[in-house]
Amino acid sequence: QTKTPHAFQVSFGLDYVNKDCFSYVLKAFETDLYRENIVAMQNKVELRIPYYDPKFVSFALNILAKEKIKEKTNKKPLRELGLKWGLPLEFTEQPKKAAQYGSNADKLITKIAKKNGFKTKGLFLESFLKKPKQRLGALISGGKDGWYAAFIQQQKNYSIECLISMKSKNKYSFMFHTPNIHLVKVQSKASQIPLILGSTPGKKELELKELKKTIQKAKQKFNLDGIVNGALLSNYQRERIEKVCDSLGLKIYSPLWQKEQLQELEELLQNKFEIIFSSIAAQGLSKEWLGKTINKKTISELKKLQEQLGFNAAGEGGEFETLVLDCPMFKQKITVKKAKPKTSYVDNKVN
Hints:
Helix 12 packs across helix 13. This protein is α/β, with parallel strands linked by helices and about 350 residues long. The strands form four sheets. A five-stranded parallel sheet has the order 5-4-3-6-7, sandwiched between helices. The protein has a two-stranded antiparallel ribbon with strand order 1-2. A two-stranded antiparallel sheet has the order 8-9. The radius of gyration is 22 Å and the shape is globular. The N terminus is likely disordered.
């Protein structure tokens, strides 16, 4: 066994599911339990959290991801235990739902919000607050994920104080998006949100240092409390951003994490995002896709390609890159009047 922080123990390297679980446990107090503790104190009761017992957490972290999730069925060990103990199938096979959804309280709040003239329940709830929750910097590369993540946090009454972007000289960087990165300046002007732009030669060992330096500059200039990023599936990016934020005492928000790919694209349309393909590099995507707008038709085509070829419909595997031309955070719409495609024959990418 190898010791991990906070007295939790695991007998092997954490897999991708357990890494998420472990990260969440370490941040549970500031994300969930602080709120629960305040509610408990207001009602003059003491909060008890048996599922955060170190022995229990260590045991749970020693269950492999493949045992926790099987064929898209989550919480597999708990469901199997329920059957073993004689619980009816209606309970053991019940879909995973948060209390507010199962009780329909969420639907009720949405209904009240619309009745009172609010577009979203987030804006309705925001009206009860005197000031924004926290001041955030948004990691933006010009594409859909960063902007959508920033929009989600803004809807939750977080204040987006600045955009943070990195210009890498290494076009094959795993950390930073490179196609059309110069257009982030245009997006900053369109949204009227100031930009902090950092640069890096793109060497693996230096990228994090340069990112930390840039985020630190943004923190000092705008008095930031945290960072929001558009990580969807990449543990490589998310873990490194989290590491930098932890070292600077900043909270990290990843509202898109593990979101279903096609669902994200549909939500972008629902929220009036105008997005084009700025780079393509995958079988099934011809040159004609370059500059295309993401709409219901292109989402349907991406769904077919996902089923046929197995690539990521949200472009998380580098299949394509995107550029946001308009969204609810913009004061002005960006128009592309002229563009010249460039082809890289090394990776068969068209920008």
